[in-house]
Design brief:
With about 250 residues, the chain is mostly helical. It is built from 13 helices and 4 strands. The strands form 2 sheets. It has a two-stranded antiparallel ribbon with strand order 1-2. A two-stranded antiparallel ribbon has the order 3-4. A hairpin with a 4-residue loop joins strand 3 and strand 4. Keywords: Membrane, Transmembrane, Transmembrane helix.
Length: about 250
């Protein structure tokens, strides 16, 4: 089937991902941008901008020691928090951080409008995409399965809903964070009863990334699965209406 010629397509299927328009809460996107710059754009499937902001966050956060400062603040050690921060890098961080939140909110409002126009246009969609590397197709999937695989390893839930780009990124990113935080050696020490050594071995500057990562992958994998199920139903409905429903049939609206 050739690509749709719709003015505003509802979805784009490639061998590596399914990119679709659907309604989102701007405040939810802004929250994830607040928790981690770049995650708001990743939620909107704007990968280029998202990866730029995420890579910048890794660089500038480690230079400014922001996660370390957050850890000390949560412990009530405010003097240590202030001493741990690098003021030169911290000031450079603020502009990008505010931009990520603003851009996530603004983009969501615009994309919601595009979705409403695309849904009204009700153009045909490509249901299957085949390529030399992989094939992608609309199908019904179970959201709880996406959650379960995401809990086992970040990225697997995204692979389940065929968001290969996000899945591959979270494979690499989470592995990097776990390695530099020394989480697995700390788990090993804890299981052998060496709790003090386990605590000492952890690098909290890196470990503090994990809560934001896990919260995001759970939400994104689950919502992506739900919305792709809706997309499958819309495509199937369009096909049945145009191939099996009489043109004279009047929809019984209440």
């Amino acid at each position: 089937m050739p690509p749709t010629t719709a003015r505003r397509p509802r979805a784009y299927l490639s061998s590596f991902t399914t990119n679709q328009l659907h309604l989102r809460n701007p405040w939810v996107v802004a929250f994830f941008a607040f928790s981690y710059p770049g995650f708001g754009n990743l939620l909107l499937q704007r990968y280029t901008k998202a990866f730029i902001l995420i890579l910048w966050e890794i660089f500038i956060n480690n230079k400014a020691h922001i996660n370390t400062g957050i850890m000390y603040s949560l412990q009530g050690k405010f003097e240590l928090a202030k001493q741990s921060l690098d003021q030169n890098w911290l000031i450079a961080y603020l502009g990008i951080y505010v931009y990520a939140i603003w851009d996530g909110y603004r983009s969501t409002v615009d994309i919601n409008k595009l979705y409403l126009l695309a849904d009204r246009e009700d153009a045909p969609m490509v249901a299957t995409r085949m390529g030399p590397w992989d094939m992608n197709y609309l199908d019904k999937r179970k959201p709880w399965v996406a959650l379960a695989w995401s809990a086992i390893m970040p990225g697997l839930g995204h692979m389940y809903v065929h968001k290969v780009i996000s899945g591959l990124f979270f494979f690499g990113y989470t592995t990097t964070v776990i390695y530099f935080s020394h989480l697995l050696p700390a788990v090993h020490l804890s299981l052998t009863g060496q709790t003090a050594a386990a605590t000492k071995s952890l690098d909290m500057q890196w470990l503090m990334y994990l809560p934001s990562i896990y919260c995001f992958i759970f939400y994104d994998a689950y919502v992506s699965c739900v919305e792709q199920n809706k997309l499958f139903e819309k495509e199937q409905s369009y096909y049945l209406r145009n191939h099996f429903q009489s043109a004279a049939f009047k929809m019984p609206f209440k």
